Amino acid sequence: MSVVLLGPQRKPSVGPVVRSMDLPGRVATITAGWQEREPDDAELDQQLGAPGLNLSLYARWLDVLERDPEFATAERRLRALLDEVQEVYLVRLDHALRAVYAIARRGGNVLLQADALTEAIAAVREVDTRHLRRISDIHEEYYTTCPPHERPVIAEHRAAVAQRLHDTSALVITGGHVGVLVATLHLFNVAAALRSPVIAWSAGAMALTDRVVLFHDRAAQGPGHPELYGSGLSLLRGVVALPHAGARLLLADSTRMAVFARRFAPARCIPLEAGGRVDVNGDTLPPGTRVLGEDGRVRVLEAA
User: Fold this and answer.
1) What are the beta bridge partners of residue 173?
2) Quick one: average pLDDT of 132-154?
3) Phi, psi of 286 (to 5 degrees)
4) Nearest residue to 96 (alpha-carbon basis) of 203, 244, 228, 245
5) For a 10 Å CB count at each end of the chain, is N or C smaller?
6) CATH at 255
7) Is residue 117 part of a domain?
8) In terms of residue numbers, what domain contains 24?
9) Is the pTM higher than 0.85?
10) Distance of alpha carbon 284 from its chain centroid, rounded?
């Protein structure tokens, strides 16, 4: 399955991309990340050159919560538990990353510092691994006790979504709230029904990966720690999508960026800026893709 990752669409480029693909039919769209503004897709349709077929995942999610109170209660409990797990993870992550940055900026014996830094980053990676495992275990238990496919309302919506995807020639996923986007994509089993190319940007690009990483070095309260949120659709494995990288990351801080890249290696960290396009087929990134190197600098992939 081919995937096209785009940069942020403040200066829209999705229209030319769609036209360049010479698609034979209508395009399905997912704007669930916009939440209450999900139906406000007229501008998107204009960019696409024809009305898209909006899968209305956010509206479907609200419908499920309204028509299946038992599931809604279970869902609220799940979200509360995951929020608590995330808070505990952030406490552990803060201590681990503070140690990394302290060692990285410390002088002294070069070999000793290099070994200590490698060990400190390994400790952060272990915190990340345990966090993802805990999230996975929670979801596994949840799906065992409350299987979505056995809920009539969810099954109804899943069938409708699958049919719409079958009737269209590509899927466009916009940005917005990545948590809502990932949750609705999973709930309605979008990955299982996909057969056509996917075009995504911002939170949509993040939602396609196997590990969703939240990041913001330029927050009002100061740089935050990049944190693992969970698993996306896993259509892209070994990729960390970084939309708005120039605005959200301290790319000039090579020490901080080197830690970022080494922490998530061997995954490739891809800055996605306005006007950018990355065409991915399988697990191979094309030559010309900008990636964050382990030296903390953005470089361009060359042909193998």
Assistant:
1) 30, 200
2) 95
3) -75, 155
4) 228
5) C
6) 3.40.50.880
7) no
8) 2-68+151-300
9) yes
10) 18
